[in-house]
User: Which sequence fits this backbone?
């Protein structure tokens, strides 16, 4: 069984996003970039399946400008077998529906039995792409998973989904799309020898334009503002009594 | 043009996020209907009492109690021919389903809407809420999830018509096995007026019990930072933040939480923020109204004794 792992290059999650005053867009020039943390977890889970003998091949896919190759190389250095780079002309505002269509075409081409991906990217926080792929391909879907096990006959997977009311356990027929949550695993680091080895692993480049998918934006960003967090007065208190009195005065107790 | 609200039920109970979705829908359309996918058609009665709803459409089938996104999206897409808008409250229920509906209708859904600017223009957060973007959609059919903390929750007081739809429920390619429900007598996190939240600073699951005791004293819900969840102090459904729940209570008391931007994203709109920590330099203190820098175990115990 082939596993496809779509991954995304994002602003480093520990970096504060800033708005460029001139372009009125989020400024990513010279910003520190990284693999989306949820994608790292997806890569780790795919590697575990490969190591257990359940997967024949692991394939990472990413979409973007030439810099995206760095992120694919990171996945290869972690242990992924090969990479597919969907190359865009310049920075396109690709939205989950576009990404879903692009990825669905690759998943079909590769006849992948399983797609493992992050539940959301920490830049746009959409939490949509995996769900959209499942809708386009009519594959079974397990979102927000924190546990994963393949059945003995390799026909289905059982997943634990972290939902608002607790943990839902679902059995998914294959082929399936799963989107991973934070507690699924602890992603490995790429070792130096593996980083070297990754350079010679196969990386196929496909021009986005050759896929014949309409990528005109459906949703346009009109403007962005930094909302961040506003500093507050931070009055110091020094006893429980004082704190409770303050809260009573504020009318919140 | 009319709007359809996807209602989330827990048993017979209406999720608070659905009431926020009704309010958002009334800002978009004069005619707001609701759609209920349930195992028991009787559950629609409570939905019909929500103020602002015209007609409640009900699809009842035993598999719909724990519906798969595949089935739900096909049923919703079938109903959407009569509507311009589909609105749902942001929650794992809607985030699982709405994007699949988007795929079926060839629509780009908009996640976590915080404000309705016009018929096709909305404000939504990016980068864990550090950026707020105003976005305009050119899709004819518009699919939205809305932040339950940003819209009033529609109260009861209406008397909508209930219409039961007889449709064939499609085959599913996934099967519900079980639900391990978090049992709690405390207020629900996303709708609580008061929240006591604990972080890594508590050090252990045993110590985290102090947070629960204090919450009970203050009639508050319990929350946690991602670090506390990752350390195994408490389960993930208590997590507040970018990838957990977004809350805006009257009182948010953060105990032993350093204040990563991902956590602040989930609680920065709280009315009064109290920080109890032994680290005076932690970023959490900057957004606090009241700060108590002290040994946090002693402080929590003192609060439990005095509250």
Assistant:
């Amino acid at each position: 069984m082939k596993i496809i792992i779509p991954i995304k290059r994002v602003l480093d999650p520990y970096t504060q996003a800033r708005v460029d005053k001139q372009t009125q867009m989020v400024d990513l020039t010279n910003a520190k970039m990284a693999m989306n943390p949820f994608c790292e977890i997806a890569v780790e889970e795919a590697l575990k399946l490969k190591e257990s003998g359940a997967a024949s091949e692991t394939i990472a896919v990413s979409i973007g400008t030439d810099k995206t190759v760095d992120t694919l190389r990171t996945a290869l250095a972690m242990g992924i077998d090969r990479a597919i780079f969907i190359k865009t002309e310049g920075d396109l505002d690709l939205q989950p529906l576009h990404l879903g269509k692009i990825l669905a075409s690759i998943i079909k081409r590769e006849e992948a039995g399983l797609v493992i991906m992050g539940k959301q990217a920490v830049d746009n926080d959409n939490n949509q792409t995996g769900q959209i792929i499942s809708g386009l391909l009519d594959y079974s879907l397990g979102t927000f998973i924190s546990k994963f096990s393949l059945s003995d006959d390799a026909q289905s997977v059982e997943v634990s989904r972290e939902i608002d009311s607790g943990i839902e356990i679902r059995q998914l027929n294959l082929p399936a799309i799963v989107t991973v949550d934070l507690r699924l695993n602890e992603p490995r680091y790429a070792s130096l020898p593996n980083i070297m080895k990754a350079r010679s692993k196969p990386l196929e480049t496909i021009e986005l334009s050759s896929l014949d998918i309409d990528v005109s934006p459906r949703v346009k960003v009109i403007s962005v503002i930094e909302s961040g967090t506003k500093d507050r007065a931070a009055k110091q208190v020094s006893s429980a009594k004082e704190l409770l009195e303050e809260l009573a005065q504020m009318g919140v107790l | 043009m009319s709007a359809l609200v996807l209602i989330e039920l827990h048993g017979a109970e209406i999720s608070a996020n659905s009431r926020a979705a009704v309010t958002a829908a009334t800002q978009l359309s004069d005619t707001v209907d609701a759609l209920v996918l349930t195992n028991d058609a009787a559950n629609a009665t409570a939905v019909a009492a929500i103020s602002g709803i015209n007609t409640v459409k009900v699809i009842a089938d035993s598999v719909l109690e724990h519906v798969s996104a595949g089935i739900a999206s096909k049923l919703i897409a079938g109903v959407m021919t009569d509507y311009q808008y589909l609105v749902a409250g942001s929650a794992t229920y809607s985030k699982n389903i709405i994007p699949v509906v988007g795929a079926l209708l060839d629509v780009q859904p908009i996640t976590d809407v915080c404000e309705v600017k016009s018929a096709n223009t909305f404000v939504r957060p990016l980068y864990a809420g550090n950026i707020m973007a105003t976005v305009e959609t050119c899709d004819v059919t518009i699919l939205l999830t809305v932040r339950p903390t940003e819209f009033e929750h529609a109260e009861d007081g209406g008397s909508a018509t209930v219409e039961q739809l007889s449709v064939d429920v499609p085959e599913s390619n996934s099967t519900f096995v079980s639900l391990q429900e978090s049992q709690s007598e405390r207020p629900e996190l996303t709708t609580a007026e008061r929240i006591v939240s604990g972080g890594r600073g508590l050090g252990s699951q045993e110590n985290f019990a102090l947070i629960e005791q204090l919450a009970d004293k203050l009639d508050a819900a319990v929350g946690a930072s991602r670090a506390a969840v990752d350390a195994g102090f408490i389960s993930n459904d208590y997590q507040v933040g970018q990838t957990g729940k977004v809350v805006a209570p009257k009182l948010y008391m953060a105990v032993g939480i350093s204040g990563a931007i991902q956590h602040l994203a989930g609680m920065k709109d709280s009315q009064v923020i109290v920080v109890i920590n032994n680290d005076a330099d932690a970023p959490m203190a900057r957004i606090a109204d009241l700060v108590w820098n002290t040994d946090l175990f002693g402080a929590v115990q003192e609060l439990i004794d005095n509250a």
Remarks:
- Chain A touches chain B through 86 residues (CB under 8 Å).
